[in-house]
Amino acid sequence: MVSKQYLETARTLFRIARDMADQTVADRLKALAGDYERRAEQASHTEATKGKAHRPTADVMPGSIDLIEQYEHSELLD
């Protein structure tokens, strides 16, 4: 997932900035990390929207999720 990669990058940048001796560089790394956090949130919303649009929920069609997964699995085998 893209959102997870952005979030991991943001955490790494924050960690590096915390240990940075040069405050100017640390501030720039923190700003960059904040940008990656925003990108992670946007990607998370996009991923959630795509997932909801393509996958019915069990509440709407009980038992249908198993049938869909079986169908998708059978398509992969073809």
Summarize the structure.
This protein has helices at residues 2-19, 23-54, 64-77.
Which class do the helix and strand fractions yield? Answer: mainly alpha
Q: What profile does the largest beta sheet have?
A: none
Rg value = 20 Å
User: How many beta-strand runs?
Assistant: 0
Number of domains: 1
Order of helices and strands: HHH
Tertiary shape: elongated
Strand content: under 5%
The helicity comes to over 70%
Terminal CA distance reads 26 Å
Written description of the protein model:
This protein is an all-alpha fold. The protein has helices at 2-19, 23-54, 64-77. It has one domain (2-77). Helices cover 82% and strands 0% of the residues. Helix 1 runs antiparallel to helix 2 (23-54). The longest helix has 32 residues, at 23-54. The two termini are 26 Å apart.
